[in-house]
């Protein structure tokens, strides 16, 4: 894999990314282990982690009874896990194939949910109603060029007093060469607005290959992420950093409870995830 930074029109980049995500859907339906959700008690590991992080801040400690908007919901495994925890869930994604897959899964499991096809950067106009919690996690804002616009959509989707939650790959992790033999910096930590161009037939789950290999992604330092939310009028309640993540970022990572981490001798050298919880006043 090689990457370079280029100036690209968002509409063209978005179409290229969408084609890539459409191709991933059947591969992820195979690789995500969605049959685990046939057990009515099953909730994904991602949502288990996120609900535990949210519990001390949520009124009553639970999403039960809340209206939740899940941005970039993909094939719905996390959305339906939130619904299993008692939330009324609206999942938003720009991939029709992902939403069809999510709807099929919801039907099979007998879970009510609403699915909305939209670019997340235009989601306020596409989604009906407002929400107690806007949720997004694991593989999200690296696909977006403009975090100020993203944060303004989040703020506009929230009711007064509502919470926003994000957990995702840490930008410091994304600057590391995933194939190097040790921890070695390769990619820019700071964004300059230009896209990183990737040509990659693989995906993070399973061994399948996609036809549409070209994607455009954007680096966002932690300061930009937090400042975009502050700029949209949200109050930051909590910021955390974690040492493991749910996907194998590098072949050198080892399995740990709930995901993958660097070998023990390197584990405290660099964060793997960040979490931000914010409130609309
Ligand atoms: C890595 S998945 C995140 C989902 C979740 N962590 C999971 O594993 O199910 C990224 C999702 O973002 C969606 N996506 C990427 N760019 C988007 C955009 N501009 N608007 C809406 N959805 C987008 C993709 O279709 C994909 O479903």
What does this structure look like?
The protein is an alpha/beta fold. The chain has one domain: Vaccinia Virus protein VP39 (Rossmann fold). The protein is 30% helix and 24% strand. The strands form 3 sheets. Strands 4-3-2-5-6-12-9 form a 7-stranded mixed beta sheet, with helices on both faces. Strands 1-7-8 form a 3-stranded antiparallel beta sheet. The longest helix is centred in the N-terminal third of the chain and has 22 residues, at 10-31. 38% of the residues are buried. The model has no long low-confidence stretch (mean pLDDT 96). It binds S-adenosylmethionine. S-adenosylmethionine binds at residues 14, 17, 21, 72, 74, 77-78, 93-95, 98, 119-121, 137-140, 143-144. S-adenosylmethionine binds next to helix 1 and helix 3.
Topology:
Blueprint (H helix, E strand, L loop, with lengths): L2 E4 L3 H22 L13 H10 L12 E5 L5 H8 L3 E6 L2 H14 L4 E4 L5 H4 L4 E7 L9 H11 E12 L1 H4 L20 E5 L14 E4 L4 H10 L3 E8 L11 E3 L2 E3 L11 E7 L2
Helix pairs in contact: 1-4, 6-8
This protein binds S-adenosylmethionine (SAM).
The site of S-adenosylmethionine (SAM) has 20 residues, from helix 1 and helix 3.
Summed up, what is this model?
With 281 residues, the chain is of the alpha/beta class. The chain has helices spanning 10-31, 45-54, 77-84, 96-109, 123-126, 147-157, 171-174, 222-231, and strands spanning 3-6, 67-71, 88-93, 114-117, 131-137, 158-169, 195-199, 214-217, 235-242, 254-256, 259-261, 273-279.
């Amino acid at each position: 894999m090689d990457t370079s930074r280029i100036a690209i029109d968002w509409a063209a980049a978005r179409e290229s990314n969408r084609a890539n995500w459409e191709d991933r859907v059947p591969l992820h339906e195979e690789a995500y282990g969605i049959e685990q959700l046939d057990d009515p008690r099953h909730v994904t590991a991602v949502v288990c982690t996120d609900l535990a992080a949210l519990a001390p801040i949520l009124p009553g400690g639970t999403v039960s009874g809340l209206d939740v908007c899940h941005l970039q919901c993909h094939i719905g495994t996390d959305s339906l896990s939130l619904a299993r925890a008692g939330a009324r869930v609206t999942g938003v994604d720009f991939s029709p194939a992902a939403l069809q897959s999510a709807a099929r899964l919801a039907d099979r499991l007998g879970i009510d949910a609403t699915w909305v096809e939209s670019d997340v950067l235009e989601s306020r106009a596409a989604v009906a109603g407002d929400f107690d919690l806007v949720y997004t996690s694991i593989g999200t804002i690296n696909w977006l060029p403009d975090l100020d616009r993203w944060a303004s959509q989040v703020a506009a989707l929230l009711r007064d007093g509502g919470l926003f939650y994000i957990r995702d790959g840490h930008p410091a992790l994304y600057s590391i060469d995933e194939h190097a033999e040790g921890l070695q910096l390769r990619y820019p930590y700071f964004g300059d607005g230009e896209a990183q161009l990737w040509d990659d037939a693989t995906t993070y789950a399973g061994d399948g290959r996609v036809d549409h290999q070209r994607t455009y992604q954007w680096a966002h330092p932690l300061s930009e992420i937090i400042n975009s939310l502050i700029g949209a009028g949200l109050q930051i309640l909590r910021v955390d950093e974690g040492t493991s993540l749910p996907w194998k970022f590098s072949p050198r990572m080892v399995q740990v409870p709930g995901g993958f981490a660097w070998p023990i001798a390197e584990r405290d050298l660099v964060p793997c995830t960040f979490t931000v919880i914010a409130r609309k006043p």
